[in-house]
Amino acid sequence: MSNNPSSPPATHDAEVIVVGAGPVGLTTGCALRHHGIDCLILEERTEVQATSRANNLWARPQELLAGIGLRDALAARAYPIRLVNFFMNGTPTTPIPIDEVASPYPQVLYSGQDVIETTLIGAFADRGGRMARGRKVVAVAQDEDGVTVTLRRGEDGPEETLRGRYLVAADGARSTVRPLLGLDFEPVRFEGRMNRQVDARLSWRRSLEPDQLWFFYYERGFCGVMPVWGGYHRLFFLGDDAGVPDRDPTLAEIQALAREVTGDETLTLTDPQWLTHSRFQYGVSPAYARGRIFLAGDAGHLSLPIGGQGMNAGLHDAVEIAWRLAMTLRGEAAPVVLDSYDAERGGEHARLSGQQAKGFRRTVYRGPVTDAALGLAAKAVPGLGALLQGTDDLQQLAVRYPDSPLNEDHLGGLAHPLQRGPAPGDRAPEAEVTQAGETTSLFRLLTNPDGVTTGWTLLCFDGRSATSSPSLRAAIEAVAPWRCVRPRLVLAGPSIEAGTVPVLSDLDGKAHGAYGLEGQPAVLLVRPDGHIAFRDAADRPDRLDAYCRRVFGPRI
Q: What is the tens place of the pLDDT at every residue in 404-420?
């Protein structure tokens, strides 16, 4: 990365204080260090949590983790999944090949939260991050220059204060920071349903290869079987709590239920690592920011166990707040950049929460009439299982920010009714291009462009036009004052040179097609997180200049 690590000013103990050392807090810390920002993580626990709660990484979060150099280390201790199998009352539905998505990381990874945390702790230390365990936050106060955190060491230990420029609360569903900010919420509860769960060694007649998942819809319930790192499997049962003891299940109870639900009388569970039970509630904080304090992960929402979306959504938060804080602390961003975090992530969590609640109701409140109808449809409806869970985008590739204050679009609306392709707020799609005669991925050229960790990429498409050269050069000249903007020429027509700007050949039109720009010279500005921010015709550098002034501040 091109940014030198920064040190906190004498009046602050850290530039950013992160509360919570779970996967989201650790990822936030690692991302900040990736951007060269001084960071201190505070954690109440004295040791890594031994049990594994969240344990999967979908494609889009993997893309974000790759952008901050974490994905490969996590993948090295995870099982890649290729297939999801669904059964409706014993009848198989169409399996879902989970890895058939347009991403460099199509296979979902299954590991364990304890393994993920341990890996991230090592990465954070390697990046020079600082962590203090055994510290409980008891108060926060902020002013125009920073945030003061009051801590207590241990249960009855002394109090101390620390000060940072900003604070990120990633301290989980029982967050101590959220209510201190007036951002608490009343959860919505699902009555009459319970989850019972075990992590244990599994023997059964189906495959033990950790490359697929199984989900079973049974009468008034839903079961999942999935790998956990180290040769273990997780079995969970979301179902009616009538007649079920309100306590953690025994191994014998779970095994008997598993044999009934899976139809495998040989299924055997041994060496349990974790037996637990829980009930269900969900909700979202009314805001994800208050001044200099930001919420991330479960600190801002209670997530339902549908589709394994909770931790993954929190990883989005971690990456999204880190690059905004980095740009702000380095004086590279106007206030709208940091302000956009609340608008984007708060809105996305509200959308996801509604989607999960809908899927949860479909899954665990099914009656006999619904079951009968679904049983008849099971063999005819592809992707039935994904639809039942409330989404056909388990991989989170469709996460978008259509109402972001960072968006500006001059190619959509009534002026361009036939314009296709991704718009501002959408994830920039992957595409194959050629550079210096070698086939490469467009994604590789969007992430940390030219070594700038918070770099924005200006994609200059010639639209296969032989006369686009002056307009594209003018657009490149327009962004020159802002060092964080890194241009790339994407050429389907004649070759163009523009100094040291990388040239990407697209003679086959794969990139132009992915972005809906055949026949139209255009420029797109892509943010550090891979989402499109600005889109316009190539011949309007004045509007590009005005956008940069609004988002990055005056010309330097």
A: 999 999 998 655 555 67
